[in-house]
Automatic annotation (TrEMBL):
InterPro entries according to UniProt: vWA_TerF_C, VWF_A, vWFA_dom_sf
The organism of origin for this protein: Paenibacillus algorifonticola
Protein name: TerF vWA domain-containing protein
Gene3D superfamilies registered for this protein in UniProt: von Willebrand factor, type A domain (3.40.50.410)
Residue ranges occupied by any VWFA domain in the UniProt entry: 35-238
Length: 255
């Protein structure tokens, strides 16, 4: 490991933190406390993004936000393909080469993409026991659908959760994801979906405008090239809807 490369990465992280602080101040979020989750697609189509180091850079950008939001200065990292994985915390002392060390060396890229599993994992991680599965409608089970019931009564004093969710493509579990987003709209979790690349991302657009939610708990940002978008522009774009959600969520006593 090159000491010079690590020192350069550490200096860059401090610079990223300053840039994140500027964007947060613009949105009136300076001093806002939130838990931060960084969620990464590990489907096979993401191969080049991992090999090129772009996902490592993205993890560092997410960490810089967490260093402002989280009282521990850390982000909780999750990964998903056809299955889902809790990776662990990324923070200032362990961020260097985190993605290679904790994700790609331990998890093979998977041949498919499902969102719901990791979303449920995140809900259970921050709000254990709050999410309950139920079946609604249908005769003898025919035509019934999955719904999620929420009991958040014991989590009213917990800080909100800001989820950065990075993916480069479509998922195969759309209906379950829709119902999950509807159910989770009664918890203090905000999903910032980031679509990477040239896909049209019709489904993420749909989630951004999904009906039947208690509160609008998701936003979608398309980034054609994560390497080319500036840090300032990325942070400004990631924080467009979060302040509005915070106000509404507080008004409805989600936290």
């Amino acid at each position: 490991m090159s000491i010079d490369l690590r020192k350069q990465a550490e200096d860059n992280l401090i610079d990223l933190k300053k840039k994140a602080t500027i964007s947060l101040t613009k949105r009136g979020l300076n001093g806002q406390v939130a838990r931060v989750a960084a969620v990464f697609d590990i489907s096979g189509s993401m191969t080049n993004l991992y090999r090129s180091g772009i996902i490592q850079k993205t993890a560092e950008r997410a960490l810089a936000l967490a260093m402002n939001f989280d009282d521990n200065g850390a982000a909780d990292v999750f990964a998903f393909g056809l299955s889902n994985h809790e990776i662990g915390e990324i923070y200032q002392a362990n961020f260097y080469q985190f993605v290679e060390r904790e994700i790609t060396s331990k998890h093979k890229l998977e041949m498919g993409t499902q969102y719901a599993g990791v979303m449920k994992q995140i809900a259970d991680f921050y709000y254990p026991g709050a999410l309950k599965l139920s079946r609604k409608g249908g005769f003898l089970g025919l035509g019934s659908r999955t719904e999620y019931e929420i009991d958040a009564s014991k989590f009213k004093n917990d800080p909100p959760v800001y989820v950065l969710f990075f993916t480069d493509g479509d998922n195969s579990d759309k209906e379950e994801t829709r119902e999950l987003i509807r159910g989770l709209s009664r918890l203090g979790i905000f999903f910032q979906f980031v679509g990477i690349g040239n896909e049209r991302f019709y489904f993420l657009d749909e989630l951004d405008n999904l009906d039947g939610r208690y509160i609008d708990n998701a936003n979608f940002l398309k980034v054609k090239n994560l390497e080319k978008i500036s840090d300032d522009d990325l942070y400004d774009s990631l924080l467009i809807e979060f302040p509005t959600w915070l106000k509404e969520a507080k008004a409805k006593q989600l936290f």
